[in-house]
């Protein structure tokens, strides 16, 4: 999370055959999560060829046993699904707890309107797993928003990721980070972000001294709905000293 006030714009979209994804950012001003708290959170790993090891690239949200939501810019650069692997049940990347499930990717589906040079507002993608994940005490899909008009203003929300914890840092934390953040009205967002067009399909969130940073891309913004159910929103593709822009499902 950044030390200044940060806004997040989350584009609300229904996930059907389309995809949803995020950019690599870091959770600045966040804290270590407790183990087995965010059961939908996944790590997307990448290797340029079979001669290399897989390394963490972006976060993602498991919303069905074999489907994940992430940022388009995280995966659009490679047309080969074999270059990607997903780890579910991950908490501390330096320790094998036995909760982890490593699954290869069989398909990547980037939003058809995504333009890599601009990103916003279609920086979303779906990732198809080669096999279904096992639902365990450490791995459970998150519920998607029931409709694209659902409002989360003043609801409890959290941003998640393994990204940098400081905009000047060079070491990514091993333990998953979280930060509490609040959704605000699009009108307030437009007033503060006058240089960005705020659409009805956007969700804006704000929190002083907290925000995603490099390495958190693709991870989720999880908000509690009126039925006390957590719903995912995808991470930012854009980052500067003012805030971040999110694409959401």
From TrEMBL:
Q: Which domain of life is it from?
A: Eukaryota
Alphabetical keyword list: Disulfide bond, Hydrolase, Protease, Serine protease, Signal
Q: A Pfam family this protein belongs to?
A: Trypsin
The entry's cellular-component GO terms read: extracellular space
Single Gene Ontology MF annotation: serine-type endopeptidase activity
Whether Disulfide bond counts among this entry's keywords is: yes
For this protein, the record's SUPFAM superfamilies field holds: Trypsin-like serine proteases
Any single biological process term in GO: proteolysis
InterPro entries hit by this protein? Peptidase_S1_Elastase_sf, Peptidase_S1_PA, Peptidase_S1_PA_chymotrypsin, Peptidase_S1A, Trypsin_dom, TRYPSIN_HIS, TRYPSIN_SER
Which residues are the signal sequence here?
1-17
**Which residues are in the Peptidase S1 domain?**
27-249
Keyword Secreted annotated: no
Q: What is this protein called?
A: Chymotrypsin-like serine proteinase,Fibrinolytic enzyme, isozyme C
Q: Which organism is it from?
A: Octopus vulgaris
């Amino acid at each position: 999370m950044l030390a200044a006030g940060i806004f997040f714009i989350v584009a609300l979209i229904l996930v059907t055959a389309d995809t949803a994804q995020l950019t690599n950012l870091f959770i600045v001003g966040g804290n270590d999560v407790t183990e087995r708290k965010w059961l939908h959170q996944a790590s997307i790993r990448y290797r340029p060829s079979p001669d290399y090891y897989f390394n963490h690239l972006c976060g993602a949200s498991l919303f069905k046993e074999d489907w994940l939501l992430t940022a388009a810019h995280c995966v659009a650069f490679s047309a080969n699904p074999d270059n990607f692997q997903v780890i579910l049940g991950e908490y501390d990347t330096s320790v094998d707890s036995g909760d982890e499930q490593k699954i290869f990717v069989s398909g990547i589906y980037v939003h058809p309107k995504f333009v890599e040079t601009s990103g916003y507002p279609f920086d979303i993608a779906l990732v198809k797993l080669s096999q279904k994940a096992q639902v365990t005490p450490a791995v459970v899909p998150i519920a998607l928003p029931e409709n694209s008009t659902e409002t989360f203003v003043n609801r409890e929300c959290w941003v998640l990721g393994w990204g940098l914890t400081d905009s000047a840092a060079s070491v990514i934390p091993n333990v998953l980070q979280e930060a509490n953040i609040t959704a605000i009205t699009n009108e307030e967002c437009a007033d503060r972000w006058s240089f960005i067009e705020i659409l009805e399909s956007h969700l804006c969130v704000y929190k002083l001294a907290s925000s995603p940073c490099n390495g958190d891309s693709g991870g989720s913004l999880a908000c509690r709905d009126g039925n006390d159910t957590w719903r995912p929103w995808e991470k930012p593709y854009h980052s500067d000293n003012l805030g971040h822009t999110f694409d959401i499902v």
